[in-house]
Amino acid sequence: MDNATLKELKERLLFLKKEIRSRIEENSKKVNIQERGDVGDYSDAIYTKDIIYDLLEKDRKRLQEVEESLYRIENGSYGKCARCGKEIELERMKAKPTAKYCIECRKIVESGL
Fold this sequence. Notes:
- This protein is an all-alpha fold.
- Helices cover about 70% and strands about 0% of the residues.
- The chain is built from four helices and no strands.
């Protein structure tokens, strides 16, 4: 991967990191929904909190993937498959800058083999 492409992907990752952190902060504030009122209001507040917790968990996992990718850029392993060590296809890296497996290894890892 050339330096210009690496720089472009790093900038995308940094943008994603900022965006995800902002969403986490915003959703964390929403968790403090008051559970007052009748049973319906209480039920609605609990349901809303469950949705927010799910969103927070997904964002935290995504943030971790982004931070791991930034770390791999710094240590020189970014763009190389974590399983087989081959270069990950450039199209894949552009589509999913947090990819850590090539297509073949991703299929193997996801299948549990």
